[in-house]
Amino acid sequence: MKIKSEEEIFELAKKIYKVIDEKDGINIKVLDMKNSPLLVDYFIIATGNSETHLNAIKEAVVEEFKKNDHQLLYYDRDRITDWIIVDGGSIVVHLFSEKAREFYDLEGLWVESERIKID
Q1: CA torsion sign, 78 to 84 to 93 to 117?
Q2: pLDDT tens for each residue of 22-42
């Protein structure tokens, strides 16, 4: 797999956003993490309304990474929890139940990170 440019990574982030939106992900946020101490370009955060919904979103996100020939470092395969992570290295997707999203408050933790508007 070739190393992707910043533009290609941003385009993939937009595609993943759209996939989550098509699966009715709730309150989708994209955080620009390039200025953080983490080795990641974007966090994409969304809420699902049930374990089944979260799993469907996760499967669609994993498929989008694979369709775009982007290596996955890790994702929750079997475990269904209140917080599912799909780690594509430069893009990390966090899928939460409503209660877990409120509890872990990643947006609050990374309040200094720019929010990116995706149309």
Answers
A1: positive
A2: 999 999 999 999 999 999 999
Please report, as a single letter, which amino acid is at residue 76: D
Measured between alpha carbons, how far apart are the two ends of the chain, in Å? Answer: 29
Q: For the structural domain made of 6-116, what CATH number should be given?
A: 3.30.460.10
Report DSSP state, residue 63: H
Dihedral sign computed on CA atoms, order 25, 27, 32, 36: negative
Output the CA–CA distances (angstroms, integers) from residue 111 to 56, 77, 108, in the order listed: 28, 29, 5
Secondary structure of residue 42 in the 3-state scheme: strand
> Contact at 8 Å (CB) between 60 and 93?
no
Residue-wise pLDDT for 4-25, tens only, equals 889 999 999 999 999 999 999 9
What percent helix, strand, coil does the chain show, rounded to 5?
A: 40, 25, 40
Do residues 73 and 82 lie in contact, with contact meaning Cβ atoms separated by under 8 Å?
A: no
Domain map of the chain by residue range?
Answer: 6-116
